[in-house]
Protein: Zinc-binding dehydrogenase
Organism: Nonomuraea insulae
Amino acid sequence: MRALLTDHSTASGLRLGETADPIPEPHQALVRVSATSLNFGEVKHAIANSQDGVVLGWDAAGVVERAAADGSGPAAGTPVITLDADGAWAESRAVDTAMLGVVPAGADLGAISTIPVAGASALRALRRIGPLLGKRVLVTGATGGVGRYAVQLARLGGAHVLASTGDPAGHGDGLRELGAHEVIKHPEQAAGLVDGVVDNVGGAQLVAAFGKLAPHGTLVAVGHGTGEGESFPFGALFGDCGRHDRSLVTFYLLDGADLVPDLTWLAARVAAGDLDPGISWRGGWDRADEAVGALLEGRLHGKAVLDIS
């Protein structure tokens, strides 16, 4: 089959080539891939840290070509959304049925392919914060894939949403259209305290956002885009003066919990138009170099989608 293979001799670290067809395990379905979306983490780190000839990729949408031999998962011919640690950048993918959601018939599979990492991370991070109705929730790195989904889902959950972005003037209108009530440049600019934070940035912004937590508030550290560590000043973790019972929790999407209900629900919401997938670049996978370059250079705000032909 054809696939995007790692090749460190190219500018993007990828090239279109031939590789062996995947051989599904009994609990895996064989999926014919229609589209895949790129995530900053995989193009920034996974390509650089992989050997030549490897097929990477986390997110993909397509159609079940062969159902799982153990009888789990959907039947052949079902449109699906898939997530795994690799294998998405190829014509075919073998996927555990526990990480495969059903997609409504007729949905745009390119839009659906944006969901697995970005949408599921946003949903599960917000769920960790707790019930959202009437709460104040801050989303940092709000113009990224996870951030855009988090803004929309927090608003759907009944939260008052604060969106943080490095360019409020340029992205404020778009974030408000997604559901943000307030758009700020930095967590320190938030007026008052917040009940929860979905942090996609890390570093000094995470520290500042933690300082904005109300009692019993929770910050979920989802992304680490700055590549910087977190240094808390003395006293930042005190629990007196109304700062008690605040939590900072780490996050890992593939924590063993069943992803099928979440992926299926998110796919239905995107297909119905309730959630905007935030596609900011889309093209054939022969143009992968363009998409990777735009992501690494910070020129994309949202998701890059490659259509597999």
Summary: The radius of gyration is 20 Å. The chain is about 25% helix and 25% strand. The chain has a mean pLDDT of 96.
